[in-house]
Amino acid sequence: MKTLQKVFHGRKVLVTGHTGFKGSWLTLWLRQLGAEVCGLSQPPSSAPNHWELLGLDTSSHLFDIRNVSALQRLLKEQQPEIVFHLAAQPLVRQSYQDPLETWSTNVMGTAALLDAIRNIESVKAVVVITTDKCYQNREWEWGYRENDRLGGFDPYSASKAATELLAASYRSSFFDQSRGPLLATARAGNVIGGGDWSVDRLFPDAIRALQAEDPLLIRSPNATRPWQHVLDSLAGYLLLASSLFSGNVTGATAWNFGPDQYGNRSVEWVLERMKRTWPALEWDVEVGDKPHEATLLQLDSSMARKHLGWRPIWSVERAIDETADWYRCYYERGELASARQLQAFCNDYEQLLGANGR
């Protein structure tokens, strides 16, 4: 964590999608590292929302990333050194409802950003966040590696695979070692954590059901996902950006940031764990026709472990417990646990590195 502070302190960082779940947590962490953060995003899509609850004193610009002229003006004004691109349409089921919006936001929004960056000499490192769902899912039992085939059944997953190809094209065509910043993509698992009120996500839907005193309706209780706390994935993004900013040319590629094998758990297992904190939680299985969703998915993150020194810090049990605790603090005591949990995560990270002699 001290190494990250040395890299980010005083740096000008652009975060797209900063009002979203991941983006708001990332902005909080960057501010604590001493970075000068500029955010670009659509207005928050829920009320309440984590971004407004945090009340961070940072530059915030609310417009569509596909607004090319506004995007170009912002980059010229801000002259960022590091860019994290998280702005996206992030939901599988919504992509079935509005596929054109999903394709346009995820692919053309990324293209607009990367093309604008071509003319900004201050930018030294770019991390484009995609997803573990960018792989062609064959429902096999071992984790996907970064060089496995891309694909995607639903519009969201396929659009993220296309985003990976787009980023690789810009890296080869415009962002090589001599002509621009180092560009990498990051693929994380199913992130959980406090402050997420998105629709069609397990924890937010469970919290809404609890508040309404209704049973949660779930689609696929036996579907397995690589669950991890949002801070574990963000730690990977920060380490990757740090490596790129330091000039590590080999880091300009695709990276997986997923939990260990014990983090791959079924939806029903996760709910049973959550029920320890919320005994009132009950659920029913949705019947009838449902859009296709993968039933088995996991990542191989050995490359990040070997070359970035990244590893999951919180177990899946700890991730679930911290997430449940965040919502209990908010709904029962009106407290915001984000800064406290970030500090606890950083302390655990330092202890793990110390225990391993690093």
What do you see in this structure?
The protein is α/β, with parallel strands linked by helices. Helix content is 45%, strand content 15%. It contains 13 helices and twelve strands. It has a seven-stranded parallel sheet, with helices on both faces. A three-stranded mixed sheet has the order 7-9-11. α3 links the parallel β2 and β3. α4 packs parallel to α6, α6 packs parallel to α7 and α10 packs across α12. The two termini are 12 Å apart. The relative contact order is 0.13. The model has no long low-confidence stretch (mean pLDDT 92).
Low-confidence stretches: none
Largest sheet features: 7 strands, parallel
Question: Could you give the distance between the termini?
Answer: 12 Å
- Can you count the beta strands? 12
What would the principal axes of the Cα set say about the shape? globular
Total DSSP helices = 13
Entry keywords:
358 residues; alpha/beta; seven-stranded parallel β-sheet
What's the structural blueprint in terms of helices and strands?
Blueprint: H1 2-8, E1 12-16, H2 21-32, E2 36-41, H3 50-54, E3 59-62, H4 68-78, E4 82-85, H5 92-97, H6 99-117, E5 125-129, H7 155-173, E6 182-188, E7 190-192, H8 202-212, E8 216-218, E9 224-229, H9 230-245, E10 254-257, E11 264-266, H10 267-277, E12 283-285, H11 302-308, H12 316-333, H13 338-355
Parallel strand pairs: 1-2, 1-4, 2-3, 4-5, 5-6, 6-10, 7-9, 8-12
Antiparallel strand pairs: 9-11
